[in-house]
Structure formats: structure tokens, C-alpha cells
Design a protein that fits this description.
By secondary structure, the protein is an alpha+beta fold. It is built from eleven helices and 44 strands. The protein folds into three domains: 430 residues, no CATH class; 151 residues, Sandwich (Immunoglobulin-like); 89 residues.
Length: 830
């Protein structure tokens, strides 16, 4: 069998048992999305600084949660993380693409979802399920059983894992149930963010690295945007996938609020440009060395990144052609072995890079490069039997655990066998609980998909038909690594514009080419198998594509189980019974002293009778359920024809706590877990800013906040718990037009709106969410001279945080009125 597969990679087309030709049919697709139901109190992942043993950043008070071990608790929600599914089918083959707002992926989740989907559908889905993630550093990480990454997100929690798998499976099945014939197309846009308004290169360590003859030293950020457009059978948008790299690090390690961060806000902003609930899925590319940009601060900055990206992405989506012509679809997955003996890099025979076999007392020669500046091989400096991490710095983090090499970038390498004992101590594990070698380090899961031919707009705008090759990689790809992937697929397989999706399937840390890894810095800090690991996985994936996807036969990717998924040891589950909150559903009129609010906001539970667009802030607090059973849904409701209905955003989605519109926080009291009669107080606040496309244009009318949740009843011995529902409504209020501030200038008027002192929403991309914000578009200006009313329509221009309307106001005019496109008004006495 293996001989046959090897010959296949050389261009032959052998036959095997049950190997059938792949049928080309018109494509089918379904799409769905759900919110992730993970309890507040679960720690946020992505920053080791949140671990109590190394600082406990983001710690807000002395609260305790059964969902934490050594990391501090999450305390609230800026945007609720979601999970999205796109199910593709052609010729009887399926590929399921799931994307979750998590820090990274875990192959144990992929295996479990696959088994459950196979049981529900009867389909063979082995190697055909993608679990990609957004890399938000303000989302959860305890779903992962990879003990090596406990330092990034706390100890594994089986309940969080089960909740994740259940939601992902249900969301995928919703997409499967809605399969329909679709049209698909691809667009590639180079240099789409030339001015760094969305993302920028954050790695300066490689600015002088010259690697390809046709590229200047220092590749910078990956310049490519990939778009996959899927329209339904009626030609309406069904799903839109966008591919580029960006870190989810806007909020930083000091924030304890759950958030989808920059990647999620880019999706939210683009959703508002559609008039229906199109599933918008951002897939990470070279995010490993790409930082989010955007002005403003705190939550307004998140919206700013989204708004800056959404217009550019919409233009690329609109330029994407589609077709429902027959296509072929095939996916394959393997878990490649990893050890000092397994890992090597050849670049098609151009190099021969490999590690020297491990010797316990070996002393390295500490020579990295030859006389021509090329890497020497075998590499004897990385003498770590079970791998090493924290390389790339001058001083070791744990000197006693150093691998004993004095030449950079190996000086700080920490032997994992010693680090394992540190992890055991930090996370209350029994000595020896972490096996060596670490199971998750022995294999790395990768999936690849071939779909097409698809109608494609290339980087030069030419419309062609070509295959789309997508590789789903287990880690944080950097820009030069992604470029090496594109070049390898092109030169070795003959396919152009291959897509590399990172933070998928598994997690191995940062993915760099060896020459880049050798330059050290933060990105070299986090992987376990040194400079050759990433490109080894790249080359193995290209080989798999060649042998399995490079022909017209449907054959198994792993017929003998040689590349089977990692098997993780069973984990003892601690059961924590939820608190019985007898006051659940009771609204609070006065804020208790212990109530915690984000951004140091001032609590005010008195609902005014009316508020204005932009500046109005409504707060509500209530006794709810234990977060183990309660993830309250907070929704803005509007009174229409004497009936309360959910207020809708531009895309037709309800305005809820899933969006930046409504903040949620949680405070237990007493703070100590296990205290008798412990209650759970929830708080939510809405600011009167509309969607990304009509921030000061929200419909006027009568509104209120409504809450639905659940509390623990009793009797169960484990999750899912027996619960009862509760609901409550806040007081109603009127939403009125915003007030426009006006100042007279020598050639017209300055116009702006003042943001509220306690505001957090972005009001204008060029403004200040707690200061001055311009009024854009056409405005109607009215003034009176000698009992005659003059009305003019003027287009405003940007001038700092304000807008300028060029108009001559006669000196005899006594007042001027300004009305913007949404009916917001201002008056100035002259």
C-alpha cells in the first residue's frame, strides 16, 4: 500500500481496494453559527502573565471559581465568542469547516467532533473536519488537553471541552441540514492593506533576513488577502470566508473580559454590511507576526479595527466572481510524527537539515552557520530528548533547565523534561503526571483540502479557473513561513495561490522557517521541536497533498493508521455543584458595594425616561444563576404596535450581548467559592450607538433591555445540570436624536458630537469615543435672514475630530440649525 502511495506522488494513478474516481458535481453548501456556552469565571488564555504564579495579570478581586486552577478568573463579557460552520459537499465528499473564537485548536476536539458527526450523519468524515480558531487572547483555553500549553491557558477542564464539542457538533449539523446548491468563487488581493490600517508586521528580528532571491530582505507582513464567496441557489450571499493573518491582542493581558478581540470584530463589522445574516468567517493566515492596528483605546479600538477592515473586505468580496459549475472536493489529514530523529528539512533536495541524535552529556560545537552563512547540519545545539521551549532570548527563564548551549538563539532553551515538573507544580498535578515524551508533542495534526476548479480572480485581476489548495496548520504561521508554503505548493505541485490557515487542528506554537527561527525573538520562544519543526510539517503536508490529493482517485489518507491522531490519557473530572441561587430573576434597584464593572464604569441603575443617540447609556443589574448554568442572554427590545420585539441590527440579527452593543459582567457574593447562600449578581449595559454602518442612525422609538437566563434547581451529579428559566425586563425609555454641537468659523461651520464620559462604543473612526466625533455625509443647514428661511444641503469634510461644512452664513442671521442624514439636530445662536 505504501509503495502505491509513493508511486502516486510521482505522477502515476494506481488503483487500490475501493479506490473510485472522484466525481465532479455542482457544489453544495450550508452555513450556520452559534454562541459558545462557556461559564464566566473560566480563565482567559493567551497570556502566561494571567497565571497567579507569574503575576496574575487581569486579577480584579479575590473571587474564586471552580473553573480555574492557577489562572485568574474571567469577570465579564465584551462580546460573546461564537462558533461558525460551513459544510461543503461535492461528488459525495464532504469537508466541514468549523471556526471558533478560541486562542488555538486542539486535536482532541477534532477527533471527538468527527466521531459525533459520523454517528449523526452516517458519513465517513475522518480527515474531513476542520477546527480552526480566531486566536483571540481574550477567550478560553481550558478545552485543550495539551499539558504543554497549560502555561498559556490553565489546566484542562472536561466540562469546558464537552460544552465546546457539543456546540460545535450542533452547529455543524445545522449547516448540514441546510445544504443547498451554491455558487462559489475565489479572489486574491495583494497589498490590500498597504497603509497598515488593519494589521502590521510586529517582528523586527528578521528585517535583514534575505531568503529568496526575488524578495528584498525583511519580508514584512504577509500582503495577501484571500476571499471565498459562497452564494445560495438564488444568487444571494450565504457565506463569506476571508483569509489573512492578524493577532487577537487588542485588549491585552490586563483585561478580564471575554472578547472575540480584533478577528471577531472584523467579522462583526462586515456582517453589518449585509442585509441578511450571512455567515462571515475569518480564517487566520500569517497571524504569528502580525499585530492589529487601529486608533482609539479599549473596546472602541476593537470596533475601529473592524470598521477599518470591513470596507476593504467588502470591496474584495464584491469583486469575487462565482460559478455553480461542477467541482471536485477532497480532504485528507495526517498526524505527522515528531522527534529529533523524525524531523528534517530538504526543500526538494536543495538542503539536508536534520538534528543530531540525542546524547545525554553531549557538548555542542556551537557553530550555527558555515562560511557562506548557510545553516550547518546536522544541528547539534538542539540536544533536547523531549524537546525544548523558551528559545530565542539571551537569558534563560529557568537557568537550571537550560539545555546547556551558550550560543544564541539556544542560550535560553529550556529542556521540556525539567519544565514538565514546573507545570506539574503550577497546576496542582501529581509528580510524574506529565508523561515524557509529552503525548501532544509526539505528533502534529494537519489537514489539507483540494476544491475546484473554481472561478478565481488572481492577484493581477485576471479571471481564471483553478484549484484551491488549502492547508490547515497546527500553530501560529509567520509571514515568511506562509510565503514558503505558497512557493512550495507552486514549485512542487504546480498549483498557484495556495491558502494556509493557521491555528487549526492542533497547536505546536509558532511556525517559522529555520533561518527565521535562528534570529530569535519572541516568536522563536514558543515551539517545542526547534528550528526545523515548522518547515518539516510544511514539507510533509505538501507530500501528503501530492500523494493523496494529487490524482483523481478517492483513496484513504491513512489506510494503515500510520498517521493516526494523538490518544490522550483519561483525566479525572472534578464535579462542582452549582450554587442554588434562590433570588434568580430579581432585578436590583441599587448597585451593591461589591458589584464589579469593566473599565471602571460608574454604576447607575436608574433608567432615564429618554436618552439620545450615541450618548445614552442604560444599565441593569439582577440576581441570576451560577455561571455554571447561567449564560444570560441580554437583548435590546423595541415597542412596535404595542408589542415588544427584539431590536435588529443592519444585518437583521438581534442586538444582544453577542455584539459590542451590550456589556455583561458577573460578581459572586461572597467571593469565596463554596460559601453558604452564595449569590450571583449580573450587570449589563447598552450604549445608544447603532451598527457598524449607522452608528448615529439607530431607529428612534421606545426601548428596554430584557434578560433571559437559568438557575440551578438541584438533583444532578454532573453537567448538564437540571435548570429552571428566569426572565426580567428593565424600564422602558425613549431614544431621541443626537445633539449636534456647532461652532462658527470664517468659512462655515464646525460640527461634532460629544461622546459620553462613561462611553465605550466607537462613535466615529476619526473621533474620540469619550470626546469629539465628526458628523459625516450631507447635512441640511437652515438659517433665517429678515424673516426669510434659507435652506442648503452641504457635504461635510473631515477636520481632526470634527467635521467642516463650507457655507457662507450672513452676518444678519440670528441662528442656524443643522440636521444630519439621520435627523440628528443642532442649533447655534449667532
Amino acid at each position: 500500500m505504501f509503495l502505491a502511495l509513493a508511486l502516486l506522488g510521482c505522477g502515476s494513478t494506481p488503483e487500490g481496494p475501493n479506490w473510485e474516481p472522484i466525481e465532479m458535481t455542482r457544489p453544495l453548501a450550508g452555513a450556520a453559527e452559534s454562541s459558545l456556552d462557556i461559564p464566566l469565571g473560566t480563565p482567559l488564555a493567551g497570556y502566561t502573565g494571567r497565571c497567579r504564579y507569574v503575576g496574575g495579570s487581569s486579577n480584579q478581586d479575590d473571587r474564586e471559581s471552580p473553573y480555574t486552577t492557577s489562572f485568574v478568573e474571567s469577570t465579564g463579557q465584551q462580546t460573546r465568542p461564537r462558533i461558525k460552520a460551513i459544510w461543503l459537499e461535492a461528488g459525495g465528499e464532504s469537508t466541514v469547516i468549523l471556526k471558533a473564537d478560541f486562542i488555538y485548536s486542539f486535536d482532541g476536539i477534532v477527533s471527538e467532533i468527527t466521531e459525533r458527526l459520523e454517528a449523526e450523519t452516517g458519513l465517513d468524515l475522518y480527515g474531513k473536519v476542520v477546527f480552526a480558531t480566531s486566536h483571540s487572547h481574550s477567550s478560553w483555553g481550558t478545552f485543550s488537553g495539551d499539558q504543554g500549553f497549560y502555561l498559556g491557558g490553565d489546566r484542562f477542564n472536561d466540562e469546558v471541552f464537552e460544552r465546546t464539542v457539543a456546540t460545535a457538533t450542533d452547529t455543524a449539523l445545522m449547516a448540514y441540514a441546510d445544504l443547498e446548491e451554491v455558487s462559489i468563487g475565489v479572489n486574491w488581493v495583494r497589498d490590500w492593506d498597504l497603509n497598515d490600517t488593519v494589521y502590521k508586521d510586529r517582528r523586527d528580528d528578521n528585517d535583514e533576513l534575505a531568503f529568496w532571491d526575488d524578495v528584498e530582505p525583511g519580508y514584512g507582513k504577509d500582503p495577501w488577502l484571500g476571499v471565498v464567496r459562497i452564494d445560495d441557489s438564488l444568487g444571494q450571499p450565504l457565506a463569506a470566508m476571508f483569509h489573512f493573518g492578524i493577532h487577537g491582542t487588542v485588549l491585552g493581558q490586563g483585561s478580564s473580559m471575554v472578547s472575540t478581540d480584533a478577528p471577531g470584530h472584523i467579522e462583526l463589522a462586515l456582517e453589518d454590511h449585509f442585509t441578511s445574516d450571512v455567515v462571515v468567517m475569518h480564517l487566520q493566515g500569517a497571524g504569528g507576526d502580525a499585530a492589529p492596528t487601529g486608533g482609539h483605546s479599549d473596546y472602541a479600538r476593537l470596533e475601529g479595527v473592524g470598521e477599518s477592515a470591513s470596507g476593504l473586505l467588502l470591496s474584495a468580496w464584491e469583486a469575487t466572481p462565482t460559478s455553480n459549475a461542477p467541482i471536485r472536493l477532497e480532504s485528507a489529514s495526517r498526524h505527522f510524527p515528531q522527534s529529533l530523529e523524525d524531523i528534517s528539512v530538504t526543500r526538494g533536495g536543495a538542503v539536508d537539515l536534520y538534528y543530531k541524535s540525542y546524547e545525554q552529556y553531549y557538548v555542542a560545537d556551537e557553530e550555527i552557520y558555515d562560511a557562506d552563512g548557510k545553516l550547518l547540519s546536522p544541528i547539534d545545539e538542539f540536544n533536547a530528548q523531549y524537546g525544548a521551549t523558551f528559545c530565542g532570548a539571551e537569558i534563560p527563564m529557568i537557568p537550571a533547565a537550560s539545555i546547556g548551549v551558550e550560543v544564541f538563539p539556544y542560550t535560553a532553551c529550556t529542556d521540556f523534561s525539567t519544565l514538565a515538573t514546573v507545570i506539574e507544580g503550577f497546576f496542582d498535578l501529581e509528580p510524574g503526571a506529565i508523561p515524557l515524551p509529552l503525548p501532544s508533542s509526539e505528533k502534529a495534526g494537519v489537514l489539507a483540502t483540494r476544491i475546484g476548479p473554481l472561478i478565481t480572480s488572481g492577484g493581477d485581476g485576471e479571471i481564471v479557473e483553478q484549484e484551491l489548495i488549502a492547508g490547515f496548520f497546527p500553530g501560529e504561521p509567520t509571514s515568511m513561513f506562509v510565503e514558503q508554503w505558497r512557493r512550495s505548493v507552486s514549485s512542487e505541485l504546480g498549483w498557484e495561490q495556495a491558502m494556509l490557515v493557521g491555528y487549526s487542528q492542533d497547536h505546536e506554537g509558532y511556525l517559522l522557517i529555520p533561518e527565521d527561527w535562528m534570529l530569535g525573538g519572541y516568536e522563536s520562544n514558543i515551539n517545542i521541536w526547534g528550528p526545523l519543526q515548522a518547515e518539516y510539517l510544511l514539507e510533509e503536508t505538501v507530500s501528503m497533498i501530492d500523494s493523496v490529493l494529487g490524482n483523481d482517485l478517492r483513496e484513504p489518507a491513512d489506510p494503515d493508521g500510520r498517521w493516526s491522531p494523538t490518544v490522550y490519557p483519561e483525566v479525572e473530572v472534578d464535579v462542582h455543584t452549582p450554587d442554588a441561587t434562590v433570588l434568580a430573576g430579581t432585578i436590583l434597584n441599587e448597585p451593591p458595594d461589591y458589584l464589579w464593572l469593566p473599565l471602571d464604569l460608574t454604576p447607575d441603575l436608574v433608567t432615564p425616561s429618554s436618552v439620545e443617540r450615541g450618548t445614552g447609556i442604560i444599565q441593569i443589574a439582577w440576581h441570576g444563576g451560577d455561571p455554571a448554568v447561567d449564560t444570560p442572554r441580554v437583548v435590546l427590545e423595541r415597542l412596535v404596535d404595542d408589542e415588544w420585539t427584539e431590536a435588529l441590527g443592519p444585518s437583521g440579527r438581534p442586538i444582544t450581548d453577542l455584539t459590542p452593543a451590550i456589556l455583561v459582567s458577573h460578581t459572586p457574593y461572597p467571593l469565596e467559592y463554596g460559601s453558604p447562600d452564595r449569590q450571583h449578581v449580573w450587570w449589563a449595559s447598552w450604549q445608544s450607538v447603532g451598527g457598524f454602518v449607522d452608528r448615529l442612525g439607530m431607529d428612534l422609538g421606545t426601548y428596554r433591555l430584557a434578560v433571559s437566563g437559568q438557575y440551578y434547581e438541584s438533583g444532578d451529579t454532573g453537567w448538564p445540570w437540571q435548570v429552571a428559566p428566569y426572565s426580567l425586563e428593565g424600564d422602558e425609555f425613549e431614544l431621541n436624536p443626537a445633539t449636534i454641537s456647532i461652532a462658527e468659523t470664517s468659512d462655515g461651520l464646525e460640527l461634532w458630537m460629544e461622546g459620553p464620559e462613561n462611553g465605550w462604543r466607537l462613535i466615529d473612526i476619526n473621533g474620540d469615543h469619550r470626546g469629539e466625533n465628526g458628523i459625516f455625509g450631507d447635512v441640511t443647514i437652515e438659517f433665517e435672514v429678515d424673516s426669510t428661511i434659507f435652506v442648503e444641503t452641504v457635504e461635510t469634510t473631515v477636520s481632526g475630530n470634527k467635521s467642516h461644512a463650507l457655507i457662507e452664513i450672513p452676518g444678519s442671521a440670528t441662528s442656524v440649525f443643522v440636521v444630519d442624514q439621520y435627523g440628528n439636530r443642532g442649533e447655534l445662536s449667532l
